[in-house]
Structures are given as C-alpha cells and as structure tokens.
Specification:
Layout: E1 19-21, E2 27-30, H1 31-43, H2 46-53, H3 57-71, E3 76-79, E4 87-90, H4 92-124
Helix pairs in contact: 1-2, 1-4
C-alpha cells in the first residue's frame, strides 16, 4: 500500500547538532568549536582557523577562554609572533578533548542514523 508519505520521503534529510553544556545550560563544546579546535591543530594557528571558518579572531579567542574556564583546563598553548611568526597549538588536554568528542560523535551518529532509518520505514509502512 502506498502511503501519503511516499512521495516526499526521498526528500527528507536528517540534520542535527550535538553540543555539551554546563549545569546552567551554557554551551561548552559542539560541532562548531570541535571543528575549530581540529582546524587550529591542523593549521597551527588560531587566526588561520578563524579565517577559514569565517569567525572573528577576538570573539573566538574570548569564547575559547570562557570554555577553558568552564572546563578547568587550557585548550590552547599560544606563542606570540616574532621573526618566524606566532603559533597556536592544542594542549594535551585539548587534543584529548577533540579526540574523545570525535569518538563520542561517531557512536551517536550511528544511533541517530539507525533511528532515522527506522523513522522512514515507519512512515512507509501500512
């Protein structure tokens, strides 16, 4: 039996965001900051990562400092420029955070994708 949903089901796409917040519901880490931290690690530069993501340097620096305060450990090790220019690296804790979030995200992605597939099947059923 064809349901009313069958015509539009192929057009449905799953979108979601994952983020972590503190007890006051203030966001700490989500997909955007996770990608930013990975880009900082890749490029060795907060400025370059901000430029690529379209973020302002000053606001992003302030946001990262607030996140560090909430987490209780530094994420970045920033070295000011000189002849060779400055660089920004993730601290060992920052690297561990993005690695753990990546593993967490991958496991959640699988569960959500399966749930979405079950949802579509339910819509298509009699």
């Amino acid at each position: 039996m064809v349901t009313k949903f069958n015509k539009k089901i192929p057009d449905l796409q799953l979108h979601y965001k994952i983020w972590l917040a503190n007890k006051d519901d203030i966001g700490i880490l989500g997909d955007g900051k996770w990608n930013l931290l990975k880009l900082i690690h890749e490029k060795g530069s907060l400025k370059a990562a901000c430029e690529e993501m379209g973020y302002t340097y000053r606001r992003t620096w302030g946001t990262l400092k607030k996140i560090e305060e909430m987490l209780g450990f530094p994420l970045l090790d920033k070295q000011r420029g000189g002849i060779e220019g400055g660089k920004t690296e993730l601290t060992p804790e920052g690297l561990k955070l993005i690695s753990a979030f990546e593993k967490f995200h991958a496991s959640v992605d699988q569960v959500i994708q399966k749930g979405f597939e079950d949802f579509i099947k339910e819509l298509q059923s009699n």
